[in-house]
Write a sequence for this structure.
């Protein structure tokens, strides 16, 4: 299991366009990719879950990746967050 925390820097928080891109990225891996933030938990492979978390700028999300390609998935998701959110 790989875990990391990331604080959202985008002034709009996690909004539709990057959320869709994040879900598409997450679905490219076999591992389970979950996030927790704003008092909610969710699967990063589901767009409604990601949008429903209501993550705003300045909030920190904790990402947990577990599975056969967890290291590569965690690195890819963390890189995506840093570049887009």
């Amino acid at each position: 299991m790989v875990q990391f925390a990331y604080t959202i820097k985008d002034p709009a928080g996690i909004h539709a366009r990057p959320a869709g891109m994040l879900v598409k990225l997450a679905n490219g891996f076999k591992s389970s990719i979950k996030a927790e933030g704003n008092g909610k938990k969710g699967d990063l492979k589901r767009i409604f879950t990601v949008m429903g978390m209501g993550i705003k700028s300045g909030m920190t999300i904790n990402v947990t990746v577990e599975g056969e390609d967890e290291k590569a998935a965690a690195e890819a998701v963390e890189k995506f967050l840093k570049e887009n959110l």
In short: The two ends are 23 Å apart (CA to CA). The longest helix spans residues 70-84. The CA atoms of residues 1 and 23 lie 19 Å apart.
